């Protein structure tokens, strides 16, 4: 999702809250509580949703479980809090949650004005458009005069305005608060077009009864590098979150999976694998964790590729190809710094 447009005073309030809360030592708080508190979306197929048993599932959810496994040795020691586009930053800045893993775009203003630290890019995305086939259009350049469902308080609005202006087209915005509200209005024909991140469009379409009746147009009008984030002011906690994500990427590159991670730890001759899985070195200890923190994370949820394919891949209803999110060894952009 995109950036909230905030008054300067509110941005300053976020900054003050960020420093005071983060400085308290998040790792110690999480260990004392025995639970990781993680903010996720209110419901987005493939990314974060509750299953028939009321258990949270999804790509963003599994990242939180990986952090919990690394920090607490228990992937289920997570308290999930659903957050909207408007509430997510307040929840993180105030200390209500320890980490935000909610399809959130990494931007300059979120780093600088809101005082958040992004931990890496978990999904490379871009804003797109979805329409019903019955509308009879095949390109966003044919949407002149359309009514567009658009989430308020986000840069989705700005991207949309810029695109239509540049193309010499007009549109009528229909303001919505959540993805659920957007889907409902779109399906009820209150708007002709639904716009958000392309992955979010695919996730929404996967929930439709007649998904084949809807198409995602080819135009991508923005860069949306999505990833988890924490408050400024606690470098140790940021390092933990960052290197859990990196460990998931490195594990895919090295062929480490949830099923073989113990065997790899016992038998691999690769020095980086041995460091990553805690067989050699004191990497975990340097950030306040057990040296096998990455092993625990991978054993709990799998490597990056396993998590992607389980929740978003071409064998799921969301049906997303890896594309830019393939490992760099396969021509994609997912690339982690060396574990040394």
Q: Main traits of this protein?
A:
340 residues, alpha/beta, D-Maltodextrin-Binding Protein, domain 2, 5-stranded mixed sheet, 3-stranded parallel sheet, 16% strand, disordered N terminus, General L-amino acid-binding periplasmic protein AapJ, Solute-binding_3/MltF_N, signal, transport
Written account of the structure:
- With 340 residues, the chain is an alpha/beta fold.
- It folds into two domains: 8-124 and 226-330, Periplasmic binding protein-like II (D-Maltodextrin-Binding Protein, domain 2, 3-Layer(aba) Sandwich); 127-222, 3-Layer(aba) Sandwich (D-Maltodextrin-Binding Protein, domain 2).
- The protein is 38% helix and 16% strand.
- It has helices spanning 8-22, 26-33, 59-72, 88-93, 108-112, 155-166, 179-187, 198-206, 235-254, 261-267, 271-276, 293-301, 304-311, and strands spanning 36-41, 49-50, 56-57, 78-83, 99-100, 116-118, 123-125, 127-132, 146-151, 171-176, 193-197, 214-216, 224-226, 229-231.
- A hairpin with a 5-residue loop joins strand 2 (49-50) and strand 3 (56-57).
- It starts with 7 loop residues before the first helix and ends in a 29-residue tail after the last helix.
In short:
It contains 13 helices and 14 strands. It has helices at residues 8-22, 26-33, 59-72, 88-93, 108-112, 155-166, 179-187, 198-206, 235-254, 261-267, 271-276, 293-301, 304-311, and strands at residues 36-41, 49-50, 56-57, 78-83, 99-100, 116-118, 123-125, 127-132, 146-151, 171-176, 193-197, 214-216, 224-226, 229-231.
